[in-house]
Specification:
Length: about 290
């Protein structure tokens, strides 16, 4: 099953929202990536030209969330060890924060804190469960809600709509947004990820990330790759309490509806999940997660 949206659907959904272009460094990196024989030294050199990105990359890959046995000390070493695609996934995810940060929108502070916690928790879960590559889990965690800052910029009342959508126990979060604004942050995020040339399966996971009930409760729904990604993401969102941070709610209605099916899908008992939850929350509570985002 594909969730790819048509150009007409995307144009309609954008509702006048302007999606930022990729930074030139990402354009250059992806041009090098598609060469028949990518030059690893050239890729490392490009990343090293941006002190912020290169510093963030090293902090992420050396974090306990990523779980490497030996410390990486240079960008060249990171590229050689992890490979071009993995490094670009991480750098791309880091870049989106810089492009979507607006000091005039106070609510973005809690959004980016939440996104970073979720991204790091996605990496931890991916390493421990093993069904998703850690770099893809990280990129999905940081990118999946990238439509939210764009919605905030376009609709000043979006926070109220988002909190109302998280309060519903009989409707999807995106359903409430569609009713109120004729668009939603998942489709805006999909278009942004597609424009930034994220892998297609990550784009489709972003488009479907509030469609978990259909994917996990309806027989035969979704392919394994998409379900693996969304299982990791939904667990991470619940662990990091996105329903509190973003939705201002005391109850995670989405998890209550589909959590049992997700745990069954990945082969975790409630006890196993509670242990993982405690580990991840301890890391984020001590600042380990946000430490790796300057």
């Amino acid at each position: 099953m594909t969730t790819e949206l048509t150009d007409q659907q995307i144009t309609s959904a954008l509702q006048g929202i302007s999606v930022p272009p990729q930074p030139q460094i990402m354009v250059d990196l992806q041009m090098e990536q598609v060469m028949p024989d990518p030059d690893l030294k050239a890729i490392a050199r490009l990343i090293s030209q941006d002190p912020g990105l290169s510093g963030s990359l090293l902090k992420i890959v050396n974090s306990p969330f990523f779980g490497l046995a030996n410390r990486i000390t240079s960008i060249q070493q990171a590229v050689n060890l992890l490979g071009v695609s993995r490094v670009i996934n991480i750098v791309n995810a880091q870049s989106i924060r810089g492009e979507l940060t607006d000091e005039n929108i106070v609510n973005l502070n809690r959004f980016w804190d939440s996104a970073q916690d979720i991204a790091m928790t996605c990496m931890t879960l991916a390493k421990r469960i093993g069904c998703v590559e850690p770099d893809e889990a990280y990129a999905l965690g940081l990118f999946h809600n990238c439509g939210i800052p764009l919605m905030l910029s376009r609709f000043p009342y979006y926070i109220e709509v988002m909190e109302d959508s998280y309060a519903q126990d009989q409707a999807r979060i995106v359903d409430i947004e569609n009713q109120r604004m004729n668009t939603n942050h998942a489709v805006i995020g999909y278009y942004t990820a597609k424009s930034w040339l994220l892998p297609r399966h990550l784009c489709e996971a972003i488009a479907s990330h509030h469609n978990a009930q259909q994917l996990f409760l309806a027989p035969g729904s979704g392919d394994a790759t998409q379900k693996n990604l969304l299982a990791i993401l939904k667990m991470a969102e619940h662990i990091c309490q996105a329903y509190r941070v973003l939705g201002n709610q005391k109850v995670d209605h989405e998890w209550n509806a589909v959590g049992h099916a997700i745990l069954e899908y990945v082969g975790l008992s409630e006890y196993d999940f509670e242990n993982l939850e405690a580990i991840c929350q301890e890391l984020t509570a001590t600042g380990e997660g946000r430490y790796y985002q300057d």
